[in-house]
Amino acid sequence: xxxxxxxxxxxxxxxxxxxxxxxxxxxxxxxxxxxxxxxxxxxxxxxxxxxxxxxxxxxxxxxxxxxxxxxxxxxxxxxxxxxxxxxxxxxxxxxxxxxxxxxxxxxxxxxxxxxxxxxxxxxxxxxxxxxxxxxxxxxxxxxxxxxxxxxxxxxxxxxxxxxxxxxxxxxxxxxxxxxxxxxxxxxxxxxxxxxxxxxxxxxxxxxxxxxxxxxxxxxxxxxxxxxxxxxxxxxxxxxxxxxxxxxxxxxxxxxxxxxxxxxxxxxxxxxxxxxxxxxxxxxxxxxxx
Length: 289
Hints:
The protein has helices spanning 21-31, 82-95, 149-156, 159-162, 183-193, 247-259, and strands at residues 10-18, 35-40, 43-48, 51-58, 71-79, 100-105, 109-115, 121-127, 135-136, 139-140, 171-179, 197-202, 206-210, 218-221, 236-243, 265-266, 271-274, 280-284. The chain is an alpha+beta fold.
């Protein structure tokens, strides 16, 4: 049995359960610079270059989770150029400056952080070339260095990009960061059962995992949620999607999860399962949808 996720596994869109669909759509469209790809009743899908990134599902009966709950820490949207990232950063600075929460140079990437109108974390980032990343004994070297947003804009924002020239450029979900109750349980599920490789850890505070040598496709931390148990229905994270390369990879994942005692739900199109905190994950492969 293959114990690892396929090397070319990536992230699919993140589904958010929202209370105000119009306001959330406007934020991700007009502020984050995503495009509406589909709108069907209570669901709006936004992305770039026809690639879904965020799916908003209207759930007006739900309320916000209680503080300290497990769930979404942030959805990280990866831009392919610094100019496109600068254009998105400029859009937030112009249209919703109060949603900015910080920035950092992580050595592997340059990142800017925000909180959407319903409290969901967002990271907008650009990766340095893999040849510039540093690995030591199987762990990726990541840091948190000061990154001046105004300096970044001054260096990378072109007049054309500010006017929308990069709006059609591709972007994707680069990684998803979750709030969980404890790191050991997260490692047992995401590394041992799901089959990610561990790429970095911060003691008992956070663990970073990936497939195929990426710095991280997912991360789990306890910074706001240490000791949290399974989630109750609430606004916020609805689902995390994993994009597997083919049916064989999906079959291996199904076998591995069942072997580890994880309950899987396969409807013929996608494989769904829950992590120990009742975060829903869905794995798909080409030809299934």
